[in-house]
């Protein structure tokens, strides 16, 4: 039932950024993937603004945009500067399929949602692995402390063994001498 992806997954994954604590995709990248003009995508989003609350889509600030441009490194100054880009979260990307009705947009959206899901699963798997490692580290730390105590007791026993013990006198001599 899985169709051959329209776009290589790596291309889509490289267009997912982490902004304001969310994994997002920019309107310019999405328009390119959907093969529509960015202006048309923005127009559809603005016409259906009630479908895109702040946790689905937000416009980048100029500072964030400039920071992101320096990370991407491929955007030319002034080329995309007329309007600040829109950043779409996973939910915003899925909502785009309801305002862009082309079959390509729907297929690309399905692929993007699957990639977001895969990224989330990889994060969960990493978190579980980290928790297991921390648990093992905790056990090893306790074991180190216990071994340290054992060696300290052994050192004390060795010191006591090497100390001369007072000897009891044997015989019939008085203790006064």
How would you summarize this macromolecular structure in one to three sentences?
With about 180 residues, the chain is an alpha+beta fold. About 60% of the residues lie in helices and about 10% in strands.
Mean of residue pLDDT values:
80
- The CATH class of the domain at 9-122 is Alpha Beta
Shape: rod-shaped
Low-confidence stretches: none
Strand content: 5-15%
How would you describe what is shown here?
This protein has six helices and four strands. The protein is of the alpha+beta class. It has a four-stranded antiparallel β-sheet with strand order 1-2-4-3. The mean pLDDT is 80.
Fold topology:
Elements: H1 9-13, E1 16-19, E2 22-26, H2 27-34, H3 38-47, E3 57-59, H4 62-72, E4 86-88, H5 90-99, H6 103-162
Antiparallel strand pairs: 1-2, 2-4, 3-4
Which terms summarize this structure?
single chain, 177 residues, alpha+beta, Mlu1-box Binding Protein, DNA-binding Domain, four-stranded antiparallel sheet, 6 helices, 4 strands
